[in-house]
Amino acid sequence: MRSPLTRYPLIRPKSLGRALDALHESIAGERLVPLAGGTDLFVYLNAGTPPGTRYLDLGGLGELRSIRAGAHGFVIGALATFRQLRDHAPLGRRLPSLVAAAAEVGAWQIQNRATLAGNIANASPAGDSLPVLLAHDATVRVQSVRGARVIPFERLYTGYRALALEPDELITAVEVPFPPARSSMFFRKVGTRRAQSISKVVCCGVLHRGRDGRVDHARLAYGSVAPTTLRARAVEAALVGTVPSAAAVVAARAALVRDITPIDDIRSSRDYRLTIAGNVLAQFLRLAGFGSSTG
Ligand SMILES: Cc1cc2nc3c(=O)[nH]c(=O)nc-3n(C[C@H](O)[C@H](O)[C@H](O)COP(=O)(O)OP(=O)(O)OC[C@H]3O[C@@H](n4cnc5c(N)ncnc54)[C@H](O)[C@@H]3O)c2cc1C
Hints:
By secondary structure, the chain is an alpha+beta fold. Helix content is 33%, strand content 23%.
């Protein structure tokens, strides 16, 4: 470890109120860096490129670990780990995509420590939970000494790895509404191998059909294809109002090029990402009852 944490001052508050006080006071000088599971931060510490020299360990805030089902959806504490998410039976029944994403983050060791808020705040375009939260119309609760507010997940990222959070705000919870009853839900991560790989393309879809058989609710979100996780709105618009058919799949796939313009980078090429993004869309629609399709 090139920059061991023991080299730096570390505060470990026992309540959210104390954590918010400490964070607020710190921004007059050098901001305390919030530390949750550490699975992203320790990569930087290990590489000798620490993101700061003072840390705020959130590990003592047990109040931020719970997962609760309310009348309209789940409220997931910021410090809930991916292991907690994948083991949570009601979550598995109502939000299987989130549980599927949790099960594909790193491997068991990472899932035991990595938190949902850490994934969100790390703001990697390849973060596996992010397309799920976007496709499910999640909202993020944030809090500072000045009070609490709720940010729609869709408005959380203002650019590449940039969040609409004030320096003294912490994420405290994520609210995910229950999807419409009898929705088709889909999660797919494509990487170089099944575990411990960073996504080349990650996708979440939610689709509901009304009594007349026509699609009346469509959400499709992708990660790893743009600087931020994005909603494929042209595809969604192409799907709403259609009845399942091979032609609808072709039209949806054609709309995808209006939504995403992936880049070549060390992990993948633009063409590969575009093809795979279309293939996973076709797979989602096939599973949602759109009959056989290519890809
Ligand atoms: C080997 C390995 C494999 C991995 N595989 C995957 C993978 O497959 N998919 C994937 O998506 N990620 C993966 N990751 C990345 C990482 O595990 C996740 O992003 C994880 O969710 C980060 O959570 P954490 O609690 O460890 O965050 P930390 O490392 O503690 O923090 C990450 C960032 O979030 C900030 N932060 C944390 N909590 C809060 C809060 N409550 N409010 C505001 N800011 C906060 C921190 O200041 C920091 O900037 C992997 C990492 C490693 C080392």
